[in-house]
C-alpha cells in the first residue's frame, strides 16, 4: 500500500492506494481518501493500515481459533448500552476476549491506571487500607449513583442519610457487636496469626462459618493443619473483637468506636426520621459510607480491607406484613439464581419468586428480585456470574433470621460475597430501645397497631462491587494488542476523549472548543500527546467510551471522527450534531454510527 498524490485544479489530494491482481493484470485501487495535507495523510494512512491488518488478523482468528463455548458465553464482547426502553442494545464484537485477571494483576492494573493504590504508600502503606485516585473515584461514584437511583427509586418513602462514622460504645452494646462481632485468631508456636476459619478454608476447601473457637481449634487439630507462614503447629484459637476502639478527648472520656457497619447509623436515626418523614411504613433509610473492621488478615486487595465503603438500605416494616408486598405481582414469575441452604447439592437453581414463598416471606423475596435486577438490568452483569447463596443457622450473622449472600464469580477467587440481604427482625431497634431508654416503637395509623418495626437490610460492599465491575470489564483485543476496559457506559469514568490529530494550533482550537463544550455534560479528557494509536490505547484501558479526533476535515467540512471503544468503529459526525449525538448514545443507548458517515466498520 502506498500514498498517492493527485493534483486537481492546482490542489493536492492524497489517497491511500493498493495494488491488486485482477486476472493477469495488476491494478492500482484507491483504498481511502487521506485529505489534502501531506503530514495528515501520512498519519491517517498509518491508522488505516493498522486497522486493515487488524481486520486480516481477525478473519484469521475467526477461521482458526475456537474459543470454548463456556468462555465465549461468559466473555462475549458486548457493548451493553441501556436504551431508553430499558433494554440493552447488544452487539457481538468478536475481537474482544475476556482476559482472566488475578488479584495481584488487578492490584497492579489499578495502581498503574491510578484507580486504587495502597494508602500512604510513600511511608510503606498499611495493610488493609487503600486510596482511590481520580479515575477510581469517578467509577466508584458512578456505581454509587446507580445504586442510589435504583434503590431509592423503589419506594417514595425511601431516603438517604449521612452520619458520623464514630459512634458511642452503647450503640455497640445495644447492637450486640461488642459481644459478638469477633474473629478467631489461630496462633502458631512462633506467634504468627491467621483467621482460623480462613486457615481451615484454605486447607479443606470448604466454608467454616459459625463455629466457636473450641470447634475451630478442634478441626485444625483433627486435620493436622499447620501455620501457613512457618509450618509450625497451631497452639491456640483466640477470640478477638473486630471493632476499632477510640480515645476521645483527654482523660476519662466517653468510649467510642469506629462503626463496623453503616447499618447502625440508620437505626439510631430511625426515631427522628420516622417522625419527619411520612410517618408511614415501609420506611427506607439508605447510607453510603465507610465502615471499619480490624480484620486479622486483610488480604486480596480490595476484597478484605480494614476500611471500606458500604452502601446499605435499611427497610423498616410492619412485621405482621412480612408476607405481603404490594408490587409482588411484578416479580412473581421472575427467576432468581439461588443456592438454597437445604439444597446445596443442587448448586445454583433458577427458581421463580412465587416458588420461593413456601420457604421465604414475600417481603423478603420481592427484595431479592430487586437486588438481582439491579445486577442484571442496571449493571448488566452476565447472568451466570451472579447468585444468591443462602446461609444456614450456623453460618448467618448473629443478627439475622434469613440471610442470603449476594455472590459474584470472580476470576481469581471464584464465588465471592459482594453483599447480602438480611432479615434482622427487631434485633437492632429492640436493643437500642433497651440501652437508650428511648421508645422506638411505631404507631401505624393504618392498622392502629403499635410495634417495634422489623428491618430488612440490603447490604452492598462498594469496594467488592468495584472490584467485580473491573474484573468483568477486563478484556483484551488481540488485533489492537491492548486491554479494553469494557465498562458499562453509565459506569465508565471517562465518557469521551478529545484529540487534535497533530499539535497544530488550528486543530487544537477546535479540539479545545469541543472539549469545553462536552465537559459541561460529562467527564471528558483532552489528550494531545503521542500517536493517535497510543491515545486510543490509553483510553481503551480505562474504558473511555468515545474518542474524538479533530483533523483537516474538521476545518474544511466541520466534521470530526468519533471512534467507538469496543468495536473500534469510526464515524464522521458534523460538529454541530456532535453533542446531541453523544448524549443520545451515552444516555439513551442509541447507536452513534447512525449519526454520521461510517468510516470503518468491523464485521460483526
Ligand atoms: N450491615 C451488614 C453487614 O455489614 P456484612 O456481610 O458484614 O454485613 C456487608 O458486610 C458487605 O460489606 C459484605 O457483603 C462485603 O461486600 C463488604 N465487606 C465486609 N467486610 C469487608 C472487608 N473487610 N473489606 C471489604 N469489604 C467488606
Defining traits:
single chain; 604 residues; Herpes Virus-1; nine-stranded mixed sheet; six-stranded mixed sheet; 17 helices; 33 strands; 32% helix
Topology readout:
Elements (H helix, E strand, L loop, with lengths): L1 E7 L2 E12 L2 E11 L2 H27 L4 H7 L2 E5 L5 E5 L3 E3 L4 H10 L3 E3 L11 E3 L1 H19 L5 E3 L5 E3 H7 L1 H4 L1 E7 L4 E3 H9 L8 H10 L11 E8 L3 E3 L7 E4 L5 H13 L6 E10 L14 E11 L10 H4 L3 E5 L9 E4 L9 H17 L7 E5 L11 E9 L3 E12 L1 H10 L5 E3 L4 E3 L2 E8 H12 E4 L4 E4 L10 E5 L4 H15 L4 E3 L5 H10 L4 E5 L1 H5 L2 E6 L5 E5 H14 L8 E4 L4
Parallel strand pairs: 9-16, 18-20, 28-29, 28-30
Antiparallel strand pairs: 1-2, 2-3, 4-5, 6-26, 7-8, 10-15, 11-12, 11-13, 14-15, 16-17, 17-25, 18-19, 20-21, 21-22, 22-25, 23-24, 26-27, 30-31, 31-32, 32-33
Helix pairs in contact: 4-13, 5-12, 7-8
The protein binds glycyl-adenosine-5'-phosphate.
Q: Gist?
A:
Helix content is 32%, strand content 31%. By secondary structure, it is α+β, with helices and mostly antiparallel strands.
Structural notes for this entry:
With about 600 residues, the chain is an alpha+beta fold. It folds into four domains: about 1-55, no CATH class; about 135-180 and about 245-470, Bira Bifunctional Protein, Domain 2 (BirA Bifunctional Protein, domain 2); about 180-240, Herpes Virus-1 (2-Layer Sandwich); about 480-600, Anticodon-binding domain (Rossmann fold). Helices cover about 30% and strands about 30% of the residues. It starts with a strand and ends with a strand. Glycyl-adenosine-5'-phosphate (GAP) binds next to strand 17, strand 22, strand 25 and helix 13. The site of glycyl-adenosine-5'-phosphate has 18 residues, from strand 17, strand 22, strand 25 and helix 13.
